[in-house]
C-alpha cells in the first residue's frame, strides 16, 4: 500500500524537502519489520508442512483445506481494511490490532482442542497478517527516505525467503521432538520480541484525519462481502449442518459478484491490459497455494513419508521459486518480459500434471518433487514479473492502486481455489489415495492454464 508523501506533508504543514528522516529510526524499523516478516513466514510455511499431522491429531482430516483457506480469507479483508484505515487515520492502530490478532491466532492454534478451533486460530492469523503487512509498508513510506526504500523492500523479500528455505524443515524437527503445538508457542515470544523493537517508533508515525475515499469504501465493501462469502462457502461445504450446502452455493454466487467491487472491470472476461494481468496474478497464486497445501498430504498419506521429509520438498520448491524470480529479474524489458506470465502459467500447469500423478500411491513420490519444483519455478518467473510490468506501465500516482489490486487478487485467488477444493475433498475424504488429493492437483493444472491464457492477453498495458 503506497503512501502519498506529498499529501502526508500537506496534512502536517510541511513540504517534502522539509522532511527529516532519522537513520536511527530507519534501522529500528528495518530490524523489527524484518524479524516480524521472518517469523510470520515461518508460521505460514511451517503450518503448511505440519497440517497433515495436525489434522490427524485433531481428527479433522475432512477439514484439512480450511486451515489455509480461512487464513487467506482473513488476509483478504484485513488487507482492504488496513489500506483504507492507514490512509484515513494512520498506521498505528492497524499495526497494534494486527499484532493482537496474530498473537491471539498463534495462541488459539497452539491450544486448540479441536480442528474447528484450530481453523479459527488460522483465521485470526490471516487477519493479523494482513493488517501487519500493510501497516509495515506504510511505516516505510512514513519513516524511510525515498532513496533507501528499495533497500528496505529488498530486505523484506529476503526476510521472507529465509523461512521459505528452512522454515518447513525446522517446523518438522520441532514437531519430531516437542510436538506441533510447540511451533505456535515458540512463535509468540518471537513476535513479541519483534514488536518490542517497533513499539518505540509508533510515536514518530504521523496521524491524520483524511476522509475515506469512495474507491476505498468500495474496496472495503467488496472485501467484506467476499470474506463472508468465502467463510460461508468453506464451512458450508465442510460441516454437516442443515442447509449448509445450499448456503455454500449461494455464497459462491455472491463471491463472483464481489469481484466487480474488488478487481478491475473486465477481470472475469480477461479484458486486455490490467484486467488480464490481475486475473493472471490471481490464477498463478491460486495454483501455487493449492499445490503447496496438498503436497505434504500426498507425501505423508499416499507415500508414507514423515513430516521432516515432506518439509524438505516444500523447501526445494522455495529454492526453485527464488531461482525463477532471479531469472526474471535479469531479463530486459520488452517482448520477453511481456511473455513471462504466459510461460510461467504453462510451467505451473505442466508441473501440476506431475504432482497429480504422484497422488497415486503406485507411482513414485519423486514425481511430486519434480512437479512441485517445475511449478514453483514457473510461479517464480511469473509472479514478480507481473508486479514489475504493472509498475513500469503505470504512472507513479497509480502504483498504490496497482499494488493493492494485485495483493487482493492474490488473496482472493488462493482463498477461492481452496474453497473449491474443499468441496471435492469433503466428499472424497473417505476414499483411499488418490481420491481426496487428485481433484486438488487437477485444479492446479487448470489454474496454471488460466494464468497462461490471461498472461497472453495482457498486451500493451497503459493505465490512465
Compile the SSE list and pairings:
Elements: H1 5-11, H2 23-57, H3 66-89, H4 92-111, H5 115-143, H6 149-178, H7 181-198, H8 214-238, H9 244-262, H10 274-302, H11 307-330, H12 335-357, H13 366-393, H14 399-428, H15 438-456
Structural notes for this entry:
- This protein is an all-alpha fold and 464 residues long.
- The protein has three domains: 21-212, Growth Hormone, Chain: A (Up-down Bundle); 213-262; 270-464, MFS general substrate transporter like domains (Growth Hormone, Chain: A), CATH 1.20.1250.
- It is built from 15 helices and no strands.
- It has helices spanning 5-11, 23-57, 66-89, 92-111, 115-143, 149-178, 181-198, 214-238, 244-262, 274-302, 307-330, 335-357, 366-393, 399-428, 438-456.
- α2 packs parallel to α6 (149-178).
- The longest helix has 35 residues, at 23-57.
- The model is unreliable at 1-19 (pLDDT under 50).
